[in-house]
Design a protein that fits this description.
198 residues; mainly alpha; 0% strand; globular
Length: 198
C-alpha cells in the first residue's frame, strides 16, 4: 500500500501571507458575497490558520477594511489613468471611465462590500474608499476646466449611479423591461451631454 504524502505548505513571508489573504478575500467577495469574507473562510482558502489571519488583520472587520482599502487604491488608480488618457485625447470619450466605475462597483464587488459594511454598522471601514475618492478628485481637479460642472458633482453622480446599479440595477431593469446596461448608458449620456470628463 502506498501512502500519498501531504502537500508541503510553502512558508510565506508576512507580506506574502497578507497579500494571499487579500486575494482570497476578494475572490470570496466576488464569488459568494460580502458575508462570505470571514477570517475562517479566507484561512481555509489559503491553507493558513485563523490565528495567522488574526495576527495580520486583528478581526474580520480589519480584514474587510484592508480589502476595501486595497480595492479603493486599485479602482482610483485605474480611473485616474483613464481620465488622464481621455484628457490627452483629441476626441475624449467618457465611456471608459463610466465602464470602469460601474465594473468596480458591480462585478468587482465594491458596491456589495461597501453596502454590507454600512448595513452591519461598520461604516468606519469605508474611510479608505472615501479617502481614495477624495484624493482622486483633488488630483483630477488640477486639470479640470472651470467652465465645466464641478468634478465633485460629476464624481457624486457617477459613484451613486454605479453603486445603485450594482445593488438594485438587475432586478429594477428587469421589472421595467429595460436593458441591463441602461443605468450605465444613462451615466454615459449625462457626461457626454454635459461635455464633461473628470
Amino acid at each position: 500500500m502506498s501512502v500519498t504524502p501531504l502537500p508541503v505548505r510553502r512558508r510565506l513571508s508576512p507580506e506574502e501571507s497578507r497579500e494571499a489573504a487579500l486575494d482570497a478575500a476578494r475572490d470570496l467577495l466576488v464569488e459568494l458575497g460580502p458575508q462570505a469574507v470571514t477570517l475562517k473562510a479566507v484561512a481555509a482558502r489559503i491553507g493558513r490558520t485563523h490565528a495567522n489571519l488574526l495576527h495580520h488583520f486583528g478581526s474580520a472587520a480589519g480584514l474587510q477594511k484592508a480589502l476595501i482599502e486595497r480595492m479603493a487604491g486599485f479602482i482610483t488608480t485605474t480611473i485616474r489613468e483613464a481620465v488622464i488618457r481621455q484628457r490627452a485625447s483629441d476626441d475624449p470619450n467618457p465611456r471608459e471611465v463610466v465602464d470602469l466605475a460601474f465594473d468596480a462597483f458591480d462585478t468587482g464587488g465594491a458596491g456589495a462590500l461597501a453596502s454590507w459594511m454600512i448595513l452591519s454598522g461598520n461604516e468606519d471601514a469605508l474611510d479608505p474608499i472615501l479617502q481614495a475618492i477624495h484624493d482622486l478628485v483633488d488630483d483630477l481637479s488640477e486639470g479640470h476646466s472651470k467652465d465645466e460642472q464641478p468634478i465633485e458633482d460629476e464624481t457624486l453622480e457617477l459613484v451613486l449611479m454605479a453603486l445603485g446599479d450594482a445593488l438594485f440595477g438587475a432586478p429594477l431593469t428587469r421589472a421595467l423591461w429595460l436593458p441591463r446596461d441602461r443605468a450605465r448608458e444613462l451615466a454615459y449620456q449625462v457626461l457626454v451631454n454635459g461635455r464633461r470628463l473628470g
